[in-house]
Design brief:
This is Lipase maturation factor. InterPro entries: LMF, LMF1/2_C, LMF1/2_N. Involved in the maturation of specific proteins in the endoplasmic reticulum. It is found in: Endoplasmic reticulum membrane. The chain has 23 helices and 6 strands. With 570 residues, it is of the alpha+beta class. It has 2 domains: 328 residues, no CATH class; 144 residues, no CATH class. The strands form 2 sheets. Strands 2-1-5-6 form a 4-stranded antiparallel β-sheet. Helix 3 packs antiparallel against helix 15, helix 8 packs antiparallel against helix 9 and helix 9 packs across helix 15. The radius of gyration is 28 Å and the shape is globular. 40% of the residues are buried. The N terminus is likely disordered.
Length: 570
């Protein structure tokens, strides 16, 4: 293309107009927008180094994660930890109380901090619903309005911590602690009482912003180190040959990504190491490298979201990365115009540049002291976390304090090389050992079962039972008593338990007389192959029994010894 042709005329003319428009501006004043300023041009006016808009984006992103987490809790808590749940939290709290031998005291509360200690346990389903609904309401308000204060954010944190600390194995994963740590920092990003998207009296604290950056640094570096120190396949670059097929809950994209050439999988593994072991240090290398870090990490999380159903983990991991961007970087997300947020931030920047700052008030001094105390607390609680990061025996997804303020993180330190599944089956036959007994499969909402069913796509939503079934498949039922509890509920066609499933073959029929668990090996079908041509996404082969056929009568003593409510036939 010729450089002197019409293609260059418009930019040169635009440049002359901008120069003319700013000819009368005072030295040192920001350049004013031309009469035809568009949103893209206006966003460039924002100066670097302030984080007013960053706070809005970060709080809204955090509120979205809280909303999803409380939505999952509202839909599933009653079935998992409610009055008739698979692991009732009332039984768990009683065991904690008995362990400390006495009425509820500081030892019990500090071991399992939850507001449920203060509520009536006779209607635990109502308590769990109340906590989830209150969390949904508060998070919805913050998400829609972009307004938050310390009271609202502390409420969200206390509510979710109350659920996590009674959630037992259902809430035992790293993203629960990660949400609590992120949410704890979010409390101090806000003013105490003021509900405004732009509370001009309380600018975002640099200490809190660095707290978020420190969090994303530990998340990514911890994930990288646990891989290098863990499974050999991460070092010989073969892990991605297996990951898409054997991850907990694959999605449709995982089926096609698994079929990629070997060199693509090698590149994916190398890229993972670069993003988790090298890129985190960009945070400490100045503004531009910090922005690059945030962009790369968010892009990385988007790729992970596309390739699998990992709950809200990847969505949550994007949140602290937002702290890497300042107002000048995020200005494009906000509309331009007089009186808009971007225009108000620009005025605040101009006032600060001219030194027009109000004298510090008593409240500001207190706030600074609180932020200093927060920084000292996070630094102190980070000591064992850093020691763990440097240790050759690193452990992942562990907390060193009951409030989960600073935690260790990591993911997929080891990769399973083959996929096994537990398939629950029921039969109406009076004799389970008869060769003519017809066994019918129960289908879960997302985990693989019927080979012809397309893998689900649910992220950031999360089916907790489906996720635990993946772990149960490479353990034994003795390690997972809840699966026997589930079998007992299915023997009674219990509506609460059945609501966790996608298909109950005994719906509108008499309950099964027997339920058993069968162990299968699953592999993705080969595109163009015989099974794929028949419409099957999976090929499965029976390994053997997972647990033997059980009847409701067989489980009576088992239930009573664990103080589980005995199933009643529906």
């Amino acid at each position: 293309m010729r450089t002197g042709g019409p293609a260059m005329a418009a930019p040169e003319e635009s440049l002359r107009r901008r120069k003319a428009g700013n000819a009368g501006a005072e030295p040192g004043s920001p350049p004013g927008p031309g009469p035809g300023c568009d949103p893209t041009g206006c966003s460039a006016r924002l100066r670097a180094g302030t984080f007013w808009l960053t706070r809005i984006v970060l709080l809204r992103a955090l509120a979205f994660i809280y909303f999803v987490a409380f939505l999952v809790a509202f839909h599933q808590n009653k079935q998992l930890i409610g009055d008739r749940g698979l692991l009732p939290c009332r039984t768990y709290l009683k065991s904690v109380q008995q362990y400390f031998q006495g009425p509820v005291g500081w030892d019990a509360v500090s071991y399992a901090p939850t507001v449920l200690w203060l509520l009536d346990w006779s209607h635990m389903d109502s308590n769990l619903d109340a906590l989830a609904l209150l969390g949904l309401g508060v998070s919805s308000f913050v998400l829609v309005t972009g307004c938050a204060n310390m009271v609202l954010m502390a409420t969200l944190w206390v509510l979710y911590m109350s659920l996590v600390n009674v959630g037992q194995i259902w809430y035992s994963f790293g993203w629960e602690s990660q949400l609590l740590e992120t949410g704890f920092l979010g409390i101090f990003l806000c003013p105490l009482w003021t509900l405004s998207r732009l509370p001009t009296g309380t600018p975002p604290s640099q200490i809190v912003l660095w707290g978020f950056r420190w969090l994303i640094f530990r998340i990514m570096l911890g994930a990288g180190l646990i891989k290098i120190r863990g499974d050999r396949c991460w070092r010989d670059l073969t892990c991605m040959d297996f990951h898409y097929e054997t991850q907990p809950v694959p999605n449709p994209a995982a089926y096609f990504l698994h079929q990629s050439p070997w060199w693509v999988h090698r590149f994916e593994t190398l890229s993972n190491h670069f993003l988790e072991l090298v890129v985190p240090f960009f945070i400490f290398l100045g503004r531009r490298m910090c922005i690059l870090h945030g962009a790369l990490q968010i892009l990385f999380q988007v790729v992970l979201i596309i390739s699998g159903n990992l709950s809200f983990l990847n969505w949550l991991t994007m949140v602290p990365s937002v702290a890497c961007f300042d107002d000048a970087t995020l200005g494009f997300l906000f509309p331009s115009g007089p009186g808009g947020l971007k225009d108000r931030v620009l005025k605040l920047q101009e006032e600060a540049a001219q030194g027009a700052r109000p004298p510090p008030r008593y409240g500001c001094m207190v706030r600074r002291a609180v932020h200093m105390a927060l920084g000292i607390l996070v630094a102190w609680l980070s000591v064992p976390v850093v020691i763990n990061l440097l240790s050759p025996t690193q452990i992942m997804n562990t907390t060193f304090n009951p409030l989960r303020i600073v935690n260790t993180y990591g993911a997929f330190g080891s990769i399973t090389k083959e996929r096994t599944e537990v398939i629950l089956q029921g039969t109406a036959s009076p004799n389970a050992s008869m060769p003519d007994a017809v066994w019918e499969d129960y289908e879960f909402k997302c985990k693989p079962g019927d080979p012809g069913r397309r893998p689900c796509l649910i992220s950031p939503y999360h089916h907790r039972l489906d996720w635990l079934m993946w772990f149960a498949a490479f353990q034994t039922y003795e390690h997972n008593e809840w699966i026997i509890h589930l079998a007992g509920r299915l023997l009674a066609n219990d509506a609460t338990a059945v609501s966790l499933l996608a298909l109950n073959p005994f719906e509108d029929r008499a309950p099964p007389r027997w339920v058993r668990g069968e162990h299968y090996r699953y592999k993705f079908s080969r595109p163009g192959g015989q099974h794929a041509a028949a419409g099957k996404w999976w090929v499965r082969k029976r390994i053997g029994p997972y647990f033997p056929p059980l009847s409701l009568r067989d489980l009576e003593d088992y239930f009573r010894s664990r103080e589980w409510p005995y199933p009643e036939l529906e």
